[in-house]
Design goal:
Chain lengths: ~325, ~475
Amino acid sequence: MLTTVAAGRVFDYSHCIGMYSQSGQGFWTPQDFVLGKNGRVYVLSRGVEQLGQRVSKISLDHEFQGQFGSFGGEDGRFIWPRSIDVDQDGRVYVSDEFTNRISVFDAEGAFRFNWGRFGTDDGLLSGPSGIAFDSQDDLWVVDSLNHRVQRFAKTGGFKSNFGQQGTEDGSFEMPWGLCIDRNDDIYVADWGNNRVQKFSPDGKLLVKFEGTSNGLGSLKGPSGVAVDSEGDVYVTDWGNHRVQIYDADGRYITTLVGDAQEPSPWTQTYINANPEMIKARRRADMEPEWRFRRPVAVNVDADDRIVVLESYRHRLQIYNKLKDYQEHSLNL
Amino acid sequence: MPTKQDIALIAHLMRRAGFSEPRADLVARADKGYEAVVEELLHPEDQPPIDEELMYRILPGYEGALGPPISQADWMFRMVNTQRPLEEKIALFWHQMFATSNSKVDNPPEIGRQIAMFREYGLGKYGELLVELAKSPAMIFWLDNHGNHDGSINENWGRELLELFSLGVGNYTEDDIKSAARAFTGWTIAPKIPRNPLGRFFWNFEYKPEDHDDEEKTFLGHTGNLNGEDIMGIIVDQPASPRFLARHLYRFFVADEPDVSSWSSTPPNDPAAIEILVDAYNESHGDIRAILRVLFNSDFFKTSQFARVKSPAELIVGTVRMAGNYEGFRPGFNNLALECAWQGQELLNPPSVEGWHTGAAWIDAGALMRRVNFAAGVLGDISHPGVRAIVDRVQLQPNNSAQTMVAVCLDSIGPLQVSDTTLKELLSHALKGGELAWNTPEEISSSEDRVSKLLALIAASKDYQFA
C-alpha cells in the first residue's frame, strides 16, 4: 500500500533514492545513514570484503555530492563499518566492528582522528555497532559483542555504561542499532532477543517494544530504531524485511513493507541505458523489487519524514507522516 | 584412549566425508568410536547449522552477492566453519556430478541456492533429488529447459540427464532422450527480474501446463502420458542408475578413477566395491545416506587412505581448518575462494557439464606450485592457532630429538603417511639443526622457527597432496 492508515496515523510513501554501485553514485550494502545539516545525508556503505566501504554524501532529492573513506585498517579507512552520526559541530563519526574504532571526519570527509580499542573493561569495545549522540554531544555506542551500551565524550573518554548479556529485562544479546530521543532516552535494538528496549540515560528500563503473545508487532533480529516528534517508534525488522511501528508505550500500530514501485532517478538512468533490461522488467512480476529487503536503519527528520535504509537493495525509501490527511469523500 | 591407528582411521574418514581437522578434534571423534562417528556424519541435522542470520548480519555483502567470488566465499565460509562436514561434502559431490556453471547462468546466488538444495536433499532419496534438480532454476537455465517447448523441444537437459547425471552412455537411445525432453516441456523459470541496479533477485521454478507435451511417450520401455516426475521414477529403477551413481561415489569418496567420459569403455578399478554399493542402492531404494553408511564402513574404504589427490577445495579447506586461521567471522574468505579457483577449481563455475577432471588432472605445473605455496604458507605460520598448538605439542615431548620433531609434526598434520623418500628428506633436514632446545628466549625462538619450517616442508611434500 502506498498509503497506510492505522490508529489515527497516516504513512504515505514518497520516493526512493539509491542503487548499487561499487563506488560513486550509489551504495553497496549500506548499513546506516544520518541526516546532517543543510539537507545533507551521509550514507555508510559496508561493501563486501575489500571493496565498496565508504561514506556517500547525498541529498534526499537525489543529488550525489561525493564520498570519502575506503577499505583498510589505516586512519580514515574502514573494514566493517557499521554506524554513522554527526555531532553538534557537524563532524562525522563512524563505528567499525572489526577495528573496534570510532573514526572522526569533518563535514566534508577529511579524517581528523579516531579512538577506541578492543577489550571488555569499561570504555573498551568489542564490535562497536550502532552509535548516536545525545543532547550533551556525548556519543553512545552499542558495544555489541560485550552486550552493553557505553557513553563516551566525543573525543573518546569513557563516561558510563549499562547492560550485560542475557534475555532478562535490561540485558542484551548482540544488540545492534540505537537511537536517542529528545529526552535523551536511549532505544536499543536488542537483535538476539527480538526486541527494542528503551532506557533512561542512567540505564533504567522504561519500555519494551516486542511482539505480543499472539505475534502482533513481533520482531526478528531488529537492526535500527527511530522516534518521531509525536513519540511513535519505528523499528527496522531486519529478519522479517519490514518496519514495525509502535506508539510511545510500546503498543503496535502498523507495518510498512516497502513501496518503491517507481525506481529512483539513479536507477532509472541505469535501466534506460539497457533496453534488454526494460524488456525483461516488462515481463516480470516486479513486486519483490518494491518491497524492503534487509531494512537495516531508520531515521526521522524534523518534518517527521521516515527514511528507511535497505542493505540488500542499496536504497533509501522515504515516507511522509501526514498530519492533514482527509479520507476520500466519494464512495468509490 | 584411542590408539594411533584409531586416530589415523578417523582422520581418513574426515578427509573424505568432511575435511582435514586439527588433531585434538580427531582424538575427540576417535573417542566415540569409528561407527558412531560415521553415524554422526550421516546425520548432520543433529549438529547446529551455520547461523545464516548471524552470518548475513556480519557479512551482509555475502547475501545475494553480485560477484562470483563473493558467493564462492559464502560457501568457503560454510565449509571451513561448519559443524556438519558431510553436509558440505555431499553438496560438493553433487556440484561435481550435476555440474552447473556460472559462466552461463551468470547468477552466483542462484547457483548457491542449488548448492543449498544439495545440502537439504543430498543425503536423501536419489529420485527426490533428481526431481529437485529438474526444478532448480539454475539447472533449467544451464541446460536450456526454459527453451524446451511443447512441439519444439530442446534436448539439452534430457540428454545430459541421461548421459551425465543418471545412466551413462550406452544405457539409453536417442528416442529416449527425445521422450525425456518432451516429458520436461513446461518445466521452466518464471520471468526474471534482471540483476542490478538493485541487487540480485532469485529465480523461481514455474510449471506451465499449457506448454507441456501431454501426448503419449515411450521412455526406456515405459509408455504413457509421462511427465518429469515419471521420467525420474523410471530412471532410478534402471539397473544402470545404481552402477553409475556408485562409480561417482567411489571416485569422489574412495579412490581416483578415470573421468566419466571414459566409463562406457573403461571398467572400474574395484568392481567388487561397485557391486557392494549397487547392492546398497537396491536394498535402500536409492537412499544416499544408506549407501554412504555402507561405503564408509566398508573395508575397501578403510584401506583407501591417501588413494585420492585432494581437490583444491579439500586442500584449502582442510589446511585452514587444521591451522585455525579462518575460524569464525573475519574478512578474506574471498581470498580462499580465489585461491581455489587459481588451483583449478572455481566453485560454482565448473568448466563444463561434465564437472572437473579430478585425480592427477588437478595437478599441473602451475597448480602444483600454488598448492604447495598455499599449504606451506599456512602451515608454516606459527601465528595461526592450529600451528601454534603443534609447536606446543613438540615442545612438550620428553625428548628434543629431531626424529621426535618429525614424528610429532607428521602425526599432527594428518596423521600423514609419507613415503620412505619423503621421510628421509625430512629427517635429513631436521637433523641438520640437531636437538631442539627450549631453555632461553633465543632457543625457544629458534626451535619454534625450526618446527614451523618443518611443517611448511611437510605441507610442501608430495604426500600432503593426497587425501
